[in-house]
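anyone seen this seq b4? input:
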Amino acid sequence: MTSSASFFRLRFEYIILAAIPFLLLFLYSPALNGPFLFDDITNIEKNSSIHIKALSLESLKTAAGGYRPVAEVSFALNYYVNGLSPYWFRTVNIAIHITTAWLLYFFICKTFSLAGENYGSNRLFAAAVCALIWAVHPLQIQSVTYIVQRMNSLAGFFFLLAMLLYIQFRQSNAKIKKIFLFLAFCLSVLLAVKSKPNAVTIFPSLLLYEFIFLRSVKCAAFKNAKNIFAVISLFSAFVLLIYFASRHAASPVPFANLSAWYYGKGFTLTQYLMTEFRVIVFYISLIFCPHPSRLNIDHDISLSKSLFQPETTFLSLFFLLAAIMLAFFYIKKYRMLTFGILWFFINHLVESTIIPLDFIFEHRNYIPSMMFIAGFLSFLARIDKSVFGLAAIFIAATLSVWTFQRNSIWKSGLSLWEDSALKSVKKSRPHENFAYYLEQEGRVKEAVASYKKAIELYPNNPRHAALESHVGDLLAKQGDMQGALEHYSAAFAVDPKSKELLNSLGNFFYRIGAFNKAASFYKEALKTEKKSAILNINLGNVMAAIGETDAALQYYNSAVSLEKTSVEANYNLALLLMRKGELTEAADILKYVLTLNPRLKEAYSTLGIIYEQLNQRDEAIKNYNYALGIDRNFKHARENLERVIKMRSGQHSQ
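predicted toks r here
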């Protein structure tokens, strides 16, 4: 009876672990086909260094040239196998998350056995439940669905692997095995840190693990556990010191230029740290209540200017200190709970203390939440074992529903940033990004309104001028010249030397026929951006418009020399040569243009005109037909075709 019951319990734990992959694939399925989003675009979609064509050491070395080489190599391998497919990038992320959940199960099992707490027959089941609930928790979405945060999930995987290897190393008495385990541990730590540097917190985490669970475990490499404790303590302090100091490498003395980290940030170190008190409390609240309405790709949190401004700063500090004190107070009775609480704080040391990063991001809880969740669930398992299973089912089911709902928001850039703009009403970035996706959808009027909202929230910021200029561009295209000029003027008042703004002003005055004024702005921009093909094209257009053919020709040739594959530069050059009567050269350039863009109907139509002028009517008809094959409603090509056919028919009848 006992044997069969034990077998059933084992099967039940393995059923939970076996169910995790299928459950996670389902919960993350709404976002699988979503596009690259936010930092995915710069780090993956537009990052040519990871777009490897061949699997070689040289290509992988190039891919690994960034700040987080392990993750970057994984992106490169993803690209090599599947190209720029967000679906497969996210599928790999889910696979990493699944294996991390399994590792977490084994780590919790080990820790339960070392804790010496009475879980009875619930120990393996409780460990499986902890891994399951952590895996389906909505707070992990940003480390999985947000593709670039594979850096985070890979760091979590290797972090747990290193912890497990270290425990095995400490418990082993075989010399060869210990050497192998220690080397594997070192490699795992290196891979974790090279996936994302915040994994350096593994050293204080090991220190905490030693203090709570391993002090009584003897180690042949040391005379007693106190020596191990001392070595890890010193090493942890050293690693963290070097890491924090390296954030400002210009200083040879650690922390000598700490204030330089905050230059231009708009807040001080003290204000940042006080704000993080509230952020940490908010993170804890999200672990206990991660309803989709509380989740956000870009949270808006106000700055804490003093301990009492806002008042929640002091209350947050009091809460955090009380939590730490209670954790130590109950360390003998509830070791798992104490470990979970302190683990959470230790693993926020890098991203939520003194390094001036963005104030808040949900993915920063990937590692901290692991043992925090396990600690509280273990506490629940001990207090009321009879209802633990039912409670676990309810919690897992609720979290799963919320994870599925939240992943549905990640299905597109528009839905993700609309959600963020509605929640972060006073933060500029969500409104700007929402406006961008509205613009991509052709909803220009709504995009302009959202851009204007972002502008209101960008005082004294370089982005202010760029957005003012962009709104001017959109209004000009819509025919609202007065509104466009107002936004250009506002941008010019903030950043009069911006080449993008000067180019936009040139475009504006070109559009309304003020060619001389347009030329002056283009030339001013060209002073700072001498190798800009687009500025040379625009100046060529102006010169052509005012009849300065030779000057226009010079600018177009400059544009082509700067960007040989520019369709616009080559096409405009061909038009100008045609006007000058250099028909053969113009035709050759147009043929080259069509190798660059075979769907450019205007190029075929212009070739048709050139062949007409060369009295090659059959060639003209052929090219007009090509243009109409691309766009059957292309009026200009149709009229020319009908005229040439009539002319040819008349010639034949004669």
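The two ends are 110 Å apart (CA to CA). The chain is about 70% helix and 0% strand. kinda curious what u guys think
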